[in-house]
């Protein structure tokens, strides 16, 4: 009954879904491409080999799952790998990370007919959903078609758990339909079990296994050296945070360069109004520039390598923060705002290790950043702590891969007993 009501609500929203695609396509043209795929209609023929399917909704999930995608492909050469996304930036990130080595498509919206067409077209032997992609109709259809699904790198904050709890009649069957869950932490695992997930293991955070782009890091260090000025990075900022943080800065000393990298490409032109130069136009900051806009995709390794201190965006309003592990891995001291509930475990680990500090608001965060910019010894100690933290917590990819292999073996046994599924 709950799923019927949910589906009726989705159907009623269909015109607004199409309008939103058109609207977002004004700034990101990718949203206006291959719209048929959003409803399970694919132009290209499916891969000739059987398919392993991984869903990474956007940029963060694509980057977090990159090592797992490569490991799955290397360990299962008889399969083709399909990666689905929901955002235009996520799709571009998958292309940058994997090129022609994987098939890329939109995951359809959660309409029963659309997800059935998706499954009938690609016939995946295994599905891997990254983090919190829990779609009731999709998971019900996977169960009907015999597709085993792993929820990978799963997280469930207290806030999200309360939300799912309010829709228990919808959430519990969806979570129960999962074949396995690899949770980031014990706390995530406990909340997922309480909501109805059955086979839950703690496998760590895939983000610790992300491989840096050494060429981009080298380019960032060279850029910083040529610049010859201290650099404060405002990383993955969200709406309103740029002005909030810039306004909290002390009077300009004529030296500090603030490098601002917004989380979403659609906001680049908006944030450009606060800056004097921007990377996409090939502009190198001159002595008079106080703010430089980082408006390129796939270059976070460059930006972290160029920075002396990083303030992590998405954490100064109740949005749950953005990924701090990339900064720690690059050896950059991290300053966090108060809202990091989407990265609770990583935040706790970074604070305990001395790789990060957390402030109560934007003004306090800028004060912490300015203090760090003036203390080279403290920056070096925090940077080293971040590198050691990341090294100590690698290995989640292998844990996930073992679960995937178990599910593939179970699928193979089922295919033997039911040849129609092969």
Description:
With 422 residues, the protein is α/β, with parallel strands linked by helices. It has two domains: 230 residues, 3-Deoxy-D-manno-octulosonic-acid transferase, N-terminal domain (Rossmann fold, 3-Layer(aba) Sandwich), CATH 3.40.50; 179 residues, 3-Layer(aba) Sandwich (Rossmann fold), CATH 3.40.50. The protein has 18 helices and 14 strands. The protein has a seven-stranded parallel beta sheet, sandwiched between helices. Strands 10-11-9-8-12-13-14 form a seven-stranded parallel beta sheet, with helices on both faces. Helix 11 crosses helix 16. The model has no long low-confidence stretch (mean pLDDT 94).
Mean pLDDT: 94
What is the CATH C-level name of the largest domain?
A: Alpha Beta
Describe the biggest sheet?
7 strands, parallel
Structural class: alpha/beta
Distance between the termini: 32 Å
What share of residues are in beta strands?
A: 15-25%
> How many domains?
2
CATH superfamily of the largest domain: 3-Deoxy-D-manno-octulosonic-acid transferase, N-terminal domain
Task: Kindly provide the radius of gyration, computed on alpha-carbon positions and rounded to a whole number of angstroms.
Answer: 22 Å
Ranges with pLDDT <50 over ≥5 residues?
none
